[in-house]
Design a protein that fits this description.
By secondary structure, this protein is of the alpha/beta class. The chain has 3 helices and 11 strands.
Length: 181
């Protein structure tokens, strides 16, 4: 099964549309949203086409395909307008005999790793900086931000298919990848 990962939408209807178009083109089974869905956050400028209400309506059209976790900008009121749960600090997916630990990154992350076994994968957002690497015997992946990329990175999303995690730009170009051996 092919999985699609995005993070840090921050209420941008423009980038949410672009991400969902990429999801359709990728023909993935599920969408994992790694937090910060509707609110732009006090440290961020208003994103392009900032419209949390319409962004929620757009995402709700895919509710049966979304697995989401809470970001530091997400709140209970956001969950009231979304048709899928978002208030969990983390979620796990069992995939090809390994655990994918999904989180936003403000609680669990590279500096505060959850308990993972060899071969497991930490997938998080929050930093807006893409990453795909093996560290010791675990994998650390961040698909980047679809709305506010940092450090001159492009707007990116992630694809997990087979044992390869690819981070792509909105043109479908592979930006980074790691093989999950």
């Amino acid at each position: 099964m092919k999985l699609f990962f995005i993070s840090d939408i921050h209420g941008s209807l423009h980038y949410a549309r672009m991400a969902l178009e990429a999801y359709k083109k990728e023909n993935a089974g599920y969408i994992a949203i790694l937090g910060d869905q509707l609110y732009h956050g006090a440290r961020n400028p208003l994103p392009k086409e900032y419209n949390p209400k319409e962004t929620a309506a757009l995402l709700n059209g895919f509710a049966d395909k979304i697995i989401a976790v809470r970001g530091n900008c997400d709140s209970e009121v956001d969950e009231m307008v979304l048709d899928y749960p978002i208030m969990s600090t983390y979620s796990t997916i069992l995939y090809n005999d390994r655990r994918l630990f999904l989180t936003h990154g403000h609680i669990y992350g590279e500096s505060n790793l959850p308990k993972l076994k060899a071969g497991d994968v930490l997938i998080y957002g929050h930093t807006h900086i893409p990453k795909a690497e093996k560290r010791g015997d675990i994998y650390i992946i961040n698909p980047g931000s679809i709305t506010f990329p940092k450090e001159n990175h492009p707007n990116t999303y992630g694809i997990l298919e087979g044992n390869c995690f690819r981070i792509k730009d909105f043109y479908g170009n592979v930006y980074m990848e790691v093989s999950l051996d």
